[in-house]
From TrEMBL:
Membrane-spanning ranges: 312-332
GO biological process: methylation
Full protein name: Class I SAM-dependent methyltransferase
Phylogenetic placement of the source organism: Bacteria, Bacillati, Actinomycetota, Actinomycetes, Kitasatosporales
Molecular-function annotations in GO: methyltransferase activity
Gene3D superfamilies attached to this UniProt entry: Vaccinia Virus protein VP39 (3.40.50.150)
């Protein structure tokens, strides 16, 4: 098996060839109206960069003055989506994502998400949309042992999830494209931090209604653009996650869209979905923006020994402060969850 350094070196020529043609083709023309309500009353919310991967580019989020919807403008094109997603969840980023998905914090979040369905019965069949490598399904099975879990996603992670037994069946591709063949198959559809990644969130809700049986439940969890933390931390707030998050939907907007689709809202929650990492992840974003880059194939060349040394020493020096921030995030979590500092919300809706 190749080392990471060898993998990076093998990927670099292709990335550099892509970048030589410029970034313009990675974006669609900017919109002049809100994609949620079509209002022309838009204002720029922020400009930022790709903090996690440090791929080149500048990204703008606009807010609609009419409905509060926050969206990427200009939005990534199909080529842009391919470029910025590549080596994030799969490929070079797979090992990092696997470590994050199996961390104690992630496991706790998965259990809380699975618990949200307990008041509404024991489903026979559950489809997790945007399942990644299926870690949520594996954990949810502990609370729902009689439920058959299936997963759907674009990347190869969903096939890995099936091979490792985390899900019983894998569907790879577009949810809206596959919904017809899955019509009426499921008692539960979950979309945990999936909807914000999609090109047309309303179409995804339509697809969920299609695949659910009458009386089935849809569970949606997304970042909350109305969070006070988003305003306080600005461009460093991790849930902006540019350029992957295309739409950030206020709670009232999502409730209204679900009602229009023929769902009944049976529960909303801003407490349990909060992910207690805001201070830590903001600090990491700042560090990534100022430190010399690590060896990445979308950077023109391998960092010099001096650059690598500066990065290593800086991270070592910052480690105590990051540990303090981790402690603060966890210590303040019970209070944060009870305030508008909470960074996410969940909606449970029944298909009527």
């Amino acid at each position: 098996m190749k080392t990471r350094s060898e993998q990076v070196a093998a990927h670099r020529p292709h990335y550099q060839d892509e970048l030589a043609h410029g970034l313009a083709r990675f974006f669609e023309p900017p919109r002049s109206t809100c994609p949620w309500c079509t209002s022309p009353r838009l204002r720029e919310r922020l400009r930022t960069t790709n903090h996690p991967q440090r791929k080149p580019g500048s990204f703008v989020l606009d807010t609609c003055h009419n409905c509060g919807h926050v969206f990427q403008n200009p939005r990534l094109s199909s080529e842009g989506l391919d470029f910025y997603y590549r080596d994030c969840y799969d490929g070079l980023g797979e090992a990092t994502m696997a470590r994050m998905a199996s961390s104690p914090l992630a496991v706790k979040l998965y259990r809380n998400r699975a618990r949200a369905m307990l008041p509404f019965g024991r489903p026979a069949r559950w489809l997790d949309v945007g399942t990644g490598h299926g870690h949520f399904c594996a954990e949810a099975r502990r609370l729902h042992p009689s439920t058959e879990f299936h997963g759907l996603d674009w990347g190869e992670g969903v096939e890995i999830a099936a091979r490792t037994g985390r899900i019983s069946r894998a569907y790879r591709g577009s949810f809206t494209g596959l919904a017809g063949q899955l019509a009426g198959h499921y008692d539960v559809v979950s979309m945990y931090h999936y909807l914000e990644h999609t090109l047309a969130p309303r179409h995804e809700l339509t697809a969920a209604r299609t695949v659910l049986r009458p009386g089935g439940h849809l569970l949606v969890e997304v970042p909350d653009p109305q969070s006070t933390a988003a305003r306080l931390l600005g461009r460093w707030w991790s849930p902006w996650l540019q350029p992957q998050h295309l739409h950030l939907i206020p709670l009232d907007n999502l409730r209204g869209a679900l009602t229009e689709q023929g769902f009944t809202i049976v529960a909303t929650d801003r407490k349990e979905p909060h992910i207690p990492t805001d201070l830590t992840s903001a600090a990491v974003n700042v560090l990534n923006s100022v430190l010399p880059g690590e060896d990445l194939p979308w950077l023109p060349k391998k960092p010099s020994p001096l650059g690598r040394g500066i990065r290593a020493l800086s991270l070592l020096a910052a480690a105590p402060a990051l540990l303090v921030l981790i402690g603060l995030d966890l210590l303040l979590a019970p209070l944060t969850r009870r305030t508008r500092l909470s960074n996410a919300y969940r909606v449970v809706a029944r298909r009527d």
